[in-house]
Amino acid sequence: MATSTETSAYGDLPPAMIEGATPAADWIVILPVVLALMGGALLLMLKNTRNGQAPFAVLIAAAVAMLDAMLLWRILDTGPLTMTMGKWLPPFGISFTADAMGAGFALASAVVTVIVLLYVQFDIAAREIKYGFYSLVLLLLAGVSGAFLTGDLFNLYVWFEVMLIASFGLIIMGGRKIQLDGAIKYGFLNFLATTFFLTALGYLYGLVGTLNMADIATVSGDAPVGPMTAVAALLLLAFGMKAAAFPVNAWLPASYHTPSPAVSALFGGLLTKVGAYALLRCLVVLLPASRDIMEPVITVLAVATLILSPMGAIAQTNLRRMIGFILIGGIGSVLAGLALASEQGIGGATIYAFNSILVISALYLVAGLIERVTGETDTRAMGGLYAANSGLSIAFLVLVFAVSGMPPFLGFWPKLMLMEAALSAGGVSLTVAIILNAVLTAIAGTRAWAHIFWRAGREGEGSEQPNDRLRPMSGPEFRWGLLPAAVLTALIFWFGVQPNLVIVGGRTAAVDMLDPARYVASTGLEVKE
Fold first, then answer.
1. Does any domain span residue 5?
2. Buried b vs exposed e over 30-46: b needs ≥16 C-beta within 10 Å?
3. Beta strands across the sheet bearing 2-3
4. Tell me: the pLDDT tens digits for 99-117?
5. Is the pLDDT of residue 458 over 60?
6. For residue 418, how many C-alpha atoms fall within 13 Å in the half-sphere facing its CB?
7. Which is nearest to 285 in space by CA: 70, 478, 511?
8. Does residue 107 belong to any structural domain of this protein?
9. Do 91 and 212 form a contact (C-beta atoms < 8 A)?
10. Of 177, 230, 368, 509, which one is least surrounded by beta carbons within 10 A?
């Protein structure tokens, strides 16, 4: 069954079987997940046919991106869309419900996956193809897409597990000791977060008798405030760990730099945003009263994440560890929007998360190329790259400005919206923290740029001498590495100078989250006045 906001509610009628087949056009809400899952399964069965795996994976990811774009366009035109599995009306059937925020994040994730699959062509080893690299990437995309498009909290848990299975395989692929070390830290903290999430689901089901998101939104206001706040606190802890918010963020910079740069780009761009999305969805849409009670705590976490994370980036000399700390700082912007919970605040948080999916992925890709041509991971030993490769220099500096929130890049607009929301609410601490985050992030990024590109040589006695370890970029590295990263960077710039579509989408998402009437109506459930 698929319904839109025009569907009449069934109110207090007993649960009934759905009659008739779902219109083919309405399958679009589930097709991105199905396509990615089936593509990954097919590639796993055909793992010995190595030559055709890359084109097929790119084709599947591109088709998922096209379906997500069509879904987002339909949602912006007619409102949220729901499809319920089986033939049972929600909350008894498992629903997939897509709104502007979920569909927008799914689209950005699919676009990044296409870019990463192109990028990896100059770098991938034959044994990685044999061990199922492309299957795991599509499985990861299926898990991310399912998490963004599901309308059921237990289903969200399932898609988290799908993501974890795929990410474990990707993070250890290569078998180096540093990868195994990163996998242990990544796995332990994520298993712990999943345990908290599952515990919260059990308590929530006991309190309200449902895990359908739209149904929870209609009945959570009638549940006891104290126990519901305890559930919300558990969800804040679980999703805060998955999003790498302060103070449960140490695992991310300790693990995200350990796999290949392409995998780092997928992890940094996609995985933490699922945690941020779940925070916004659960605390704003499903448990707004509990969010109001916890607002002071969320504000403190937002301020700490915004300020401390870029300070950690400034202290780093490992390039991809530095990007990990910058990534964590961006989660602070999402927490700021969650603390404000206004149309401007939620809209700003949504747009910033969309921006971060693109920018962080591009930063990791460019960092991978820098490591390749310098043969180093330490920024102190990378000097002189400006003269050797001006294209990398430009791309890196543009992305530093974009992640800092400087105009004319996309990151400027959501930070402006967040500051306007904070000033309107009298949130001086949040306003100052957002500004400091931009300044400190710019300092961290430009400091790294100066070490890598502006300085003539390696740090030390020969720092003003040409770096004799640099090598020119090979043809495959340029075609498959720099060009895809440049396309993603150009897309970020274009969204910055033409932000109307993204801003409209972010504001539409914010309106539907603060007043989920259209979201609830799309499922066929009764909308309470």
1. no
2. bbbbebbbebbeebeee
3. 2-3, 81-84, 95-98
4. 999 999 999 999 999 999 9
5. yes
6. 34
7. 511
8. yes
9. yes
10. 177
